[in-house]
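lol ok so funny story. i was supposed to be doing the assay writeup but got distracted and ended up predicting the structure for this chain instead. priorities right. anyway since i did it might as well share w the group, maybe its usefull for someone
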Amino acid sequence: MVRAKTNTKLKPSKKADLQIVKKSTVKTTKYNDINLNAWKDYDHIKTDTLWEFPHRLRENGHSNEYHGNYIPQIAQQLYERYTKKGDVVLDLFFGSGTSGIEAINMDRRCIGVELKEDLAEKVSEKFTPKQLVTDVNIICADSASDIVRDKIQARLEIMGEEKAQFLVLHPPYDDIIKFSDKKEDLSNCESTEQFYDLFAKVAKNGYDMLEKGRFAALIIGDSYKNSEVQPLGFECMARMMSLGFRLKGIIVKDIQGNERAKGKTANLWRYRALAGGFYIFKHEYVMVFQKV
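and the output, tada:
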C-alpha cells in the first residue's frame, strides 16, 4: 500500500524564522569567541603541535627592527584560541610590543612590562595617546620584582579588571643575546641556574596576576653551552608547573626564515655541528598552560 505523502515543508515565514534561529545559535567556551557550532569555519586556527610560517608578518604595525621579538602569527593564534574581545593580555617581557600591537589589531587590551626605559619609551610611540590610556598600558619595571605586582594591579583596576585573562612569557634564551647591561636582565645572569631562578620569580608574578581558569603561553628556545644542550624550554616549563600551572600543549615552531644573517653562516654552523657532534636548532617552543 502506498502511503500518502505528508507535506512537511515550512511556510516561508516559519522557514525564515528557523534560519534566523540557527544563525543566532552560538556556542562558545568561557575563554574565547570561537563558535563551536560553526567549528568548520576556523580552518586558520592551528590545533596541531607543529607550527610552520613561511615568513614574519611586517604589516599592521609590526616590524622586525628589534632582534629577539616573537612573530605576530603566534599572538594571532594564541589570542583567538584563548581570549575574547576586550580581554586583557599581560606580557611580562614586552620588548618591541608584539603582544600590544596584536591586541589592538584583534580588539583585545594589553599590559606590557619592559625593563629598559629607552625601549619602553620607543615602543609607546607605536600607539596613539588614546590607545595608551584605554587599551595598552606599558610599565617600565623589573618583572621579577615585588613592586611590579602593585603596578600591574593598579593598571588592571584602571582597565576595570581584577586579573588579566591571558599571560605571555617570552624571556631571553639565557645569554644567547644580551639585551641590556642591567643586572635584573635575565640575559645577564651569571649562570643558567640563576636564569631559571629569576624566570621562576617572573612566572610567579604572572601566575598571581592571571585569572583562574585562564591560559598562559611560554615562548622559548633552547641553548647550547659548554658542549651540551641547555634545555631552557623544559626547565622553564617545569618551574611553571611547580607554581600550579597545568600543561596543555607543547608546540614546536619552525624558526627557519625568521633568523638574521642565517644564509651567511649556515655552512659554518654545519661544519661546527659535524665537528662538535651537535645539531643546529631550527625550532623553538610555544608551551601552553592553564591556571587551575
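Confidence is low (pLDDT under 50) at residues 1-10. Residues 192-209 form the longest helix (18 residues).
back to the writeup now i swear
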